[in-house]
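[job 4471] stage=fold_predict status=RUNNING
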Amino acid sequence: MDDYVSGMLDESRDDMSMKGVSPDPANDELFTVNDNSPPLNQDDGDCFHTMVTKLLFLSERARPDIQQAVAFLTTRISKSTEEDYKKLGRIIRYLRGEPSLPLTLQCNNVHVIKWWIDASVGVHQDLKSQTGATVLMGKGSACSASKRQKLNTRSSTEAEVVAVADVMPMILWTRQFLIAQGYNVERTDLFQDNKSAMLIETNGQTSSGKRTRHLNLQHFFIADRVKAVEVSIHHCPTDEMTADFFTEPLCGAKFIKFRALMLNLSDDDGPMSNSIGPQECVNHECPGAMHHLPNEARANHLNPGLMTHARFIHGRHASQRMGLVATGSLIHKQ
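[job 4471] inference complete, writing structure tokens
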């Protein structure tokens, strides 16, 4: 999407990028709302709406590194202020400094799906929490989510349970999608950093005490999926929780670390930009990766032992991205 990013940067106003470039799309004040900030006039508000909508399309297609910042700005469209306009400008400056970062997907194991889910408690002005999630089947984020929760929670444990409940339909869909492609999905691993939430999600009301007994029954649906062996829950140290990338604004070394993981970058200063032309993909050997594909699907590939290492300049929506990971389909030059 080089041309898309370039066109969007050309359309951006001068006052959005007058300070050069930014090393990251948001700072630690992303979720802070200043009630005293003047509201945008009609012209500036329309510009804000247009740019955020374009950024949303970009973040969903090929740039998960801006997904969290854009997700927050979408909640401000109807009440945008000058402060929000400055936050939009920071994203534009970040893209001006990194206009061509590719999302590269590399599948190592289609039989084990790994999800990371986290929540930031009460970060929004209405004290609702932020859910973040991503799925990796090798390298690069095949699917991700960053969204505000729809109800208020009283603790980090509650917020994490709600986060898993919010993402569970996507987790189950991913599993069923790969099964429909002909793969034998052995298990789906879900990683969290809150052990109390893990107990509730695994045992349901059995592990629910005075502080969590009020949780809606829909959140104990998670325990049913665990008992059905459709999902298994594991602990992940907080410092290694990759879903933090979608729940809280990261800066410096931590942002660079998780960005490289989400986009599958080999060189953060210019990841593969000199070795691979834009809008291309590269095959890498992954022995037996297509072993469980139906015969008809295998027949469509010259070498069933190759999986796609796709350079997502032309990004795809989640279902298309998962399909490319699963089947090894190529993204040809366009």
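[job 4471] summary: Residues 7 and 14 are 14 Å apart (CA to CA).
[job 4471] exit 0
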